Structures
1.
Amino acid sequence: MRFAVIGAGGHAKVVIATLQAAGHTVTGLYDDRKTIGESVAGIPVLGAVPAAVESGLPTVIAVGSNAARRRIATSLPGVEWGVAIHPQAVMHPSVRLGAGTVVFAGTVLQPDTIVGDHVIVNTGASIDHDCRIGDFVHVAPGCRLAGDVTIGAGTLMGICSFAIPGARIGSWATVGAGAGVLSSVPDGRTVVGVPARERG
Ligand SMILES: CC(C)(COP(=O)(O)OP(=O)(O)OC[C@H]1O[C@@H](n2cnc3c(N)ncnc32)[C@H](O)[C@@H]1OP(=O)(O)O)[C@@H](O)C(=O)NCCC(=O)NCCS
């Protein structure tokens, strides 16, 4: 299948690699900060973000910022959002993925987990059974989510962070690199350490 990709930075390289590993073709990139004619991973920049609509292709937003992905997704209502799943992701058939979500190499998603729209399940992350992952979440590389974890929209689970069974993490929160959530995190808060707490 042919895809368009919005974004032409480092994260886009991994999205492109994921789509290609799954047997897809990326025809072009759309990025406001690049010039037409530049290329990333051999794929040409064809225009600014709004021009992605003209491709008529399933499109993935390859932008690491959760807020920026939301802004782009809401500004382009006419686009068909595609999903990128690396063939070396292990995903139980009962897992549900929303539109525009990317699942990178080495990830494991266990039964009855539901992942929202435009989520990044980054390299080597694992999400166990019955988790609920909101739209625009980023589950960073090496993150470990136990069973029955809930994460609200827009939250960043930092690299190698973890959450124990039943943890509740709010929306637009940041769980720092290596932090361990043992109970809950309120909306919009940044927590670090084990157990994860707001910095004093
Ligand atoms: C938590 C985080 C958001 C804080 O960022 P910040 O507000 O810019 O914080 P600073 O770098 O200014 O650090 C402030 C203090 O918090 C400490 N701190 C920062 N991140 C920490 C972490 N993950 N765990 C423990 N302490 C941390 C710093 O050591 C510093 O301590 P000090 O005041 O005693 O010197 C960030 O450090 C982080 O962990 N981001 C995750 C990034 C990530 O995983 N992205 C995914 C990429 S794919």
2.
Amino acid sequence: MIERSGVSAAMSRAEALAWLAETFDRAGLEEPGREARLALCEAGGLRASALIASPEAALGEPAASRLADLAARRAAGEPLSKIAGRREFWGLTLIVSPDVLDPRPETETLIETALKLIGARRRARLRILDLGVGSGAILCALLTECPAALGLGVDASPAAVAIASRNVEACGLAARAEIRLGSWTQGVEGPFDLIVSNPPYIRSADIEALQREVRDFDPRLALDGGADGLDAYRAILPASVGLLAPGGRLIVEVGAGQGGDVLGLAARLGFVHGETRRDLAGIERVVIGERPA
Ligand SMILES: C[S@@+](CC[C@H](N)C(=O)[O-])C[C@H]1O[C@@H](n2cnc3c(N)ncnc32)[C@H](O)[C@@H]1O
């Protein structure tokens, strides 16, 4: 029988849950009970209902070995999504790795905003550009919702380009999407009906103080927005004006407190109908601008 770090194949699911919750509590995780349930389901390939229906069932192998490894990694701060190699976003199951930002629930605010603005044009042959495509979360969500749209995703990280390409393929979108290595809009030709971006927007000096799940497990290139957090907007916004079709929209995610600055930058560059949208926590999360028709 394998016995490692307090886990054994003979242990029941209920015993494993209690051990995990205690381990995660000691490691300082915010929701140790919830995390324990998720970890056990992942290691054992179980649904949550199986934990309730048969708590006395033995873990067995390979679940016990997997659980020992998973518990050690999660207790060290690695997010469960990165351990499992996948993350749910907008109803899609996406591949994630250490090379890409773990897609965040608040980024769904950008998707909702885009879809509201697209409105009745959802079935049109829209041209969409995603700058800093990362895992491909935004592009995959928008192309799934807009069945005739064409998308280009750009990223400066070769590893992110590889992951986004796999996600586009896995979501059945490869025929309508191109994923390209590059720096922002360099070499990109328009026009686009929609330009979207969730760029790095954390101030360099704030990175050290981030949660370890983010600081140690999301790539620095995906986080660091320079001294004031706004470097990427100063690169993306001026270039986007000329790449949008008349009446085309720019929709960018912003960090808490950055909405006013990014809105002001957009107005100075000639974008009209500038607006912001809040996420579920009430934080200004998205800035919209329109190229004059
Ligand atoms: C915050 S992540 C967003 C990833 C993904 N779009 C999402 O929302 O989950 C920002 C992305 O911008 C990329 N990036 C950083 N600098 C870049 C640049 N100069 N040109 C293109 N992409 C860049 C990073 O590699 C990272 O994938």
